[in-house]
Amino acid sequence: MQLVVARIGRAHGIKGEVTVEVRTDEPELRLGPGAVLATDPASVGPLTIETGRVHSGRLLLRFEGVRDRTGAEALRNTLLIAEVDPEELPEDPDEYYDHQLMDLDVVTKDGTEIGRITEISHLPSQDLFIVERPDGSEVMIPFVEEIVTEIDLEEQRAVIDPPPGLIDDRAEIASGRDAETTAEGEPAPQDPSAPQDPAPEGKA
What is the pLDDT of residue 82? Predict the structure, then answer.
């Protein structure tokens, strides 16, 4: 099975290094020296990683045969793809590969059906589940422990505890507001014993 593990960014320096947007939780395994990666577009690869280092919090890679800035810039926006055994699991039991999460049913803690995971978006700050709802609309759910409370691969479901507004962004109407209006839309009758505001001044 092929998985996207990185996207090549801009060239760094003049010796063929490139910045990399990492899309794997195991960069030391997938993006280490000697790794041979397929590419998208396919015509660019395969690419063999020659060296790798971290600079100012960014991973820099150099590929065999790429020796200057021009060659590095030609690789910009190329996706790097690793071949992964479908049965292989991440070393950390709390981590998952994208293919394990795709098509999982998403439900709330009380069992309410939300939809199905159709895509995982890897952002610099966090990962997002793109969930298709039964009506065809989509909702984005941050893949963080506070919201995604359980991944059950056997039951093929992800259990979430969404904060207010994440799933349904329609504001709830306060019950007190309902009490002020009757079902016909007329103001509710007031207590006759309650103090009355004076009538507004003006012409009769």
Answer: 85
